[in-house]
Write a structure and sequence with these properties.
- The protein has helices at about 1-30, 40-45, 60, 65-75, 85-100, 110-120, 125-140, 145-155, 165-170, 180-190, 205-220, 225-230, and strands at about 55, 160.
- With about 230 residues, the chain is mainly α.
- The chain has a single domain (about 50-230), classed as Biosynthetic peptidoglycan transglycosylase-like (Penicillin binding protein transpeptidase fold, Orthogonal Bundle), CATH 1.10.3810.
- The chain is about 65% helix and about 0% strand.
- The N and C termini lie far apart (about 65 Å).
- The chain is globular, with a radius of gyration of 19 Å.
- The protein has twelve helices and two strands; from the N terminus they run H-H-E-H-H-H-H-H-H-E-H-H-H-H.
């Protein structure tokens, strides 16, 4: 009797996890072409009273300068890596072991998309493990253009502001495709902590960091792989 009961439970669990795997796989594939209806981070923004301002736009409408700015700021090897930069992850782990209050991330743009679209903010081994899985999957099932487009559409860029179009309208009263290099660099500068690093009013950190990002934009702009992605 006990064996029969255990067998039924095991059968149910297998079916449950098979369905769960199938559903998440379908959702990953769907998001290759369809924008995510909402994310956990966006729900949390509404719950905590920050609201939700967003406006998904096409890859071309996101604009040249912001694509260059986020690659210069967040992930200069984005066009060529497979989703992970092991050396950057190792450096971040070593740094965080000795800096309790000031954390450093080693995430690529692909990892950030995996977190922003499918998971939640924060750390922990479970969330990190799931992030590695989703990063691997989108690198296999999407292309770099779609990953970058999604990153710029779903990333939080201020309190309750999600995506580059909403950020461009809020901060500079223009469309994302018309952002100047300086404006794009300021938005890119706030990405590591958009609730703390202010553009409006302009914080000292964003002012300093945006200058450095513009230098990096000049430095990587001529790289063939970068140009190939920017001109698509």
């Amino acid at each position: 009797m006990e064996k029969e009961k255990a067998g039924k439970i095991w059968f149910f669990l297998k079916r449950f996890f098979l369905w769960l795997f199938a559903l998440q796989l379908v959702y990953i594939i769907t998001c290759r072409w369809v924008n995510p209806p909402i994310t956990i981070t966006q729900v949390n923004s509404v719950i905590h009273g920050y609201g939700l301002q967003r406006d998904y736009v096409s890859y071309n409408d996101e604009g040249y300068n912001i694509k260059l700015a986020v690659m210069a700021s967040e992930d200069q090897l984005f066009p060529t890596h497979n989703g992970f930069i092991i050396k950057a992850i190792e450096k971040a782990v070593k740094y965080n072991e000795t800096h309790i209050t000031k954390r450093r991330g080693g995430s690529t743009i692909s990892q950030q998309v995996a977190k922003n679209v499918f998971l939640w903010q924060g750390g922990g081994y479970v969330r990190k493990g799931m992030e590695f899985y989703f990063t691997f999957m989108i690198e296999k099932l999407w292309n770099k253009q779609r990953i970058l487009q999604t990153y710029l559409n779903v990333s939080e860029m201020g309190k309750g502001i999600f995506g580059i179009q909403a950020a461009a309208r809020y901060y500079f009263n223009k469309d994302a495709r018309n952002l100047t290099r300086g404006e794009a660099a300021m938005i890119a500068a706030c990405l590591p902590n958009p609730k703390a690093y202010s553009i409006k009013p302009l914080s000292n950190y964003v002012a300093r960091r945006s200058v450095d990002i513009m230098r990096q934009m000049d430095f990587i702009e001529g790289v063939p792989e970068i140009q190939a992605l920017l001109k698509k």
